[in-house]
What we know:
mainly alpha
Amino acid sequence: MASRILRKGLIFLVSLVSASVVVFAFMAVLPGDPARVALGTNATPEAVARLHEEYGTDRPALVQYWDWVSGLAVGDFGRSYVTGVQIGPQILDRFQVTLWLVLSAMVVALLIALPLGIAAAMRHRRLSGTLLSGLSQVGVAVPNFLVGIMLITLFSVHLRWLPSGGWTPPAEDPWGFAQRLLLPAVSLGLVQGAILTRYVRSAILDVLREDFLRTARAKGLRPHQALLRHGLRNAAIPVVTVLALQLATLLVGAVVIERVFVIPGLGSLLLDGVGDRDLLLVQGVVMVLVLAVLLINFVVDVLYTVLDPRIRTAAP
């Protein structure tokens, strides 16, 4: 088990280094000069050259890459081309906002998917199960931003129950924080909940057909009792896989939702950096998102080992 986890850790590190090379190379080949954008169209060549020298962008690409990635290793993301402010604190501050949104959306998705997915599987030959499956299919087809606009129209414009956007830190005003988080979290979580419902249904149906569950029912357990005692653990393995993919999807989907609800998260920072051609800022944000996705996949690989005894006992 330990050797398997160690191997997964090495794969994680190699993937992270490879991703950093790809991100740096992609930003390096983009057309345009960030220094000239930062100084304006009327900047003199001497001023542009001084800014290149100040940020080290006049050095060879390998040297620039090493300086950038070695800085990332100690939390130094460099300074913004546009504002001259350190990028690391900006990313940390915005990432906390996005983390609240993503985790809340995942809670919403789980609260929707687990009961509906199990119910749809247990009633798959009944009209209610068919209706639940159809409802989840409709949810999959609706984009997050449209759900957000509909919720704003209903709860903010017509009913005036909740604010339509903005952000309040939880330490300053917990009630205001919860009010402003609710609509974007539901907007982001509803669609993911619909997707996860279908995977939960499929996983439960596969488990219900297994011999060990038939044996448990033959010994006198009712279907829901047999499922709770013996089936959910086995059904959890494919669901955990989808859950990891959805966390990555939520990170990407948060970019749009943050714009819809005017939330100062990591996605808004990324879009602002792209608009200002602040490539060093964009590199840092993209690298944090890549790290988050790779870390999620690594945690899922470890959870596989914990959940499935067949993986623990298999030869490394």
